[in-house]
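Data deposition worksheet. Section B asks for the primary sequence of the deposited chain exactly as it was used as input, without tags or linkers unless they were present during the calculation. Section C holds the resulting structure in token form. Section D is free text for depositor observations; keep each observation to a single sentence. Incomplete worksheets are returned to the depositor.
Section A, Depositor: J.P.
Section B:
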Amino acid sequence: MLLKYLVIAATSFISTFLTTKYLIKKFRQRGIVVKDMYKKGHPDVPWMGGIAILFGVISGIIVSQFLIPSIEKMLIFYFVAMSYAIFTLVDDMIDIGRKIKIVVPIFLSMPIALLNIDTTLSLYFFEIELGALYTYVIAPIYLMVVANLINMHSGFNGLSCGLSLLLLAGIAAKVILKYGAGELFYLLPVFAATLAFFYFNHYPSRIFLGNVGSYLLGSSIGGLLILYNIEFFGVIILIPHIINFLMAVYSEWFKKIKKKGAVFAKVRKDGTIEPPSYLTMKWLPAYFARLKEWQCVIINYLITFVFIVIGLLFF
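Section C:
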């Protein structure tokens, strides 16, 4: 079984690695680039690199069907994640509008009900049986919320991808503790693909995820938490993302009242970040100390790592 798992992971990793290298070259040639606002001169960086992760995941699934006797659940699970990726890829290209982006993800999450997921919500002290309410309402909303939390906690080189990689590793550790390593095959394609992409995405990024990548990762993380019935553990490890969301909500309210705010922080001559406020997790460290982008990213990694450890030890 270990050899089969290694083959699946290697397929996703190599496919993503090679595809990312190809996309970097092609996207530069076609002008599919955005400005890196936190570098001197604002260099152009290819984006929508999440397409490479999507390709790697698909490659891993194709190989899985020859190695794992029954992969129906895997196909359903990744159908949801790929639906999110395709939807946001279209949004990246044509900007489908805010109202549609609010409504459609709920429907994209509905196939999670086909997994015959455990409808018992496990909390720290007790369990609640929710039945169809969980299957058709709570689970899809939970998945959608997690996908949006992952997408929002981004903006620096390697931030969203690195945090997602940490979260996936934390989920893998929790699964091993709860079920054993034999249940990891659902997670392998997306974890291996994300690891390969991170090689190109960490500071200084050679390619960005784009919404297609962040929503693919976010929906995968949300789906895995539901699939493995570790939703409460998911809440714990996502506390930094939840705080980031609450900051964003307050920031939007603050800007409406005070008529000020900014999308990007400034960069000082010494390369340190000068944020307009402390109201995102990525800006928070630099608001109180003169820090460079990569230092802020490392601090955010450490914060999430701490909550993963807390989740593993106590939840």
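Section D:
The chain has twelve helices and six strands.
Strands lie at 33-35, 44-46, 120-122, 127-129, 266-267, 273-274.
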